[in-house]
Amino acid sequence: MTEPQGKLIPETVEVTYVHSNLSQEVIKITTDKLKLILKDHLHLMERKKEWIAPLGIVITLVVVLTTTTFQEAYFSADTWKAIFVIILVLSSLWLLKSFWYFFKSPSIEEIVEKIKKGE
Q1: Average pLDDT, the chain
Q2: Which residues pair with 73 in a beta bridge?
């Protein structure tokens, strides 16, 4: 084997200016206030998922009402249909209420603003 015949020449780059964009905003808050704010926010975030159950029920009831021929069993067929329609109306109201909570829930930016204000 032959040895390499070259030399390693170090290269340097001249730095003429360094741009710095490291400014930060600091929030000072006590632990108890932060816990209260986050606890309220967690409750609202959990309510954002409440629409899933009523939507499933509404879809199921719509499918049942459009594809089923009700038969008499303990009650008349019309009574069974009325029961399912009433349940559909109540589930739809529950779904609307859940959507209202979904859109009413605060965003991350709103929570940060709340923390800044110390509310």
Answers
A1: 84
A2: 75
